[in-house]
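Technical note accompanying the year-one report. For the benefit of new consortium partners, we illustrate the data format agreed upon in the data management plan: each record pairs a sequence with a structure-token string. No post-processing was applied to the example shown here.
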Amino acid sequence: MRFLNGFLRAAIFSTLCAGVADVTHAQCDNPKTDAARAECIKTELKESDSTINRTCGELMKSLSPDDRTALRSEQRAWIKTRDQQCGITWSKGDREAWFGDLLKDYQKTVCVVRLTNDRVSALESYQKNNKVAPVAEPPASVADGQPVYDLQSNQPKTSGKWYFEVKVDGPAIQKMAEVTLFIGVAQAAPAAGAANEEGQASGSMVMIRRNKQPDNGTLGFALDLDNGKLYTSHDGAWDGGAPGSAGGLDLLKGRTYKAYLDSSAAVNAFLKAHALDLNYGDRGFVYHVPDGYKPLENGQTLAQQ
């Protein structure tokens, strides 16, 4: 018997912990645009859905009758909380239609993925103890305060040429979580009255999965706001052309931009372990700063969104 997907609402909860959904794998090798990011988050949505179904199904088979009852009640409460926090109002039971409706809103999709990943961590702790009970220690991702998913630079820029680097230790992150990271620049504020007021984020996407060789290395970003370009590099090799060339990613000239990182999992533990290291200019860079470019910031701490 084929059961429905674990993201459906509590009215059809009995299907949540049975079966594993099929996963559609998108090609997410360094997507550069909002459309590409949306396609990749679609992949992560279905992967996280598959994971929570599998984990919950395995757990239900091993628990005592009392704990199975407790888990069902807890899952119902989690679904209600997820829908409230993510602004989900869909109440129909069609799985694919639910996916399609959710994927129309990138922020709602990211919200669901984040909460699902956190819920999987809780279920995995139940598996270790073979019991539904609060975890004695908080997950590493939130042990040092509230979970952080987004980071941005403190000093938005409208003109000039700026450089920053982000080190990603893929193997170290892989031991902590599966995650999708978007790293690049985003418009700092809407341009009131202009076409495409919000602009779009541009940069690099890093996907880390437990069953694949993880992305790894130092990402470089050269932001040329005078000419409306963003150039990206991996371990010193420029992707699609070096700064000053006709390559790179096009930005909207005259807009104000900030460095921006968006994650599908809390980054607290990654930062603490230095597995994710953002350098906006408070120390020396790993690679040569392109001629004519300056550090994005000097001595500035990161701002949490």
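Partners are asked to follow this layout when depositing records. The radius of gyration is 21 Å.
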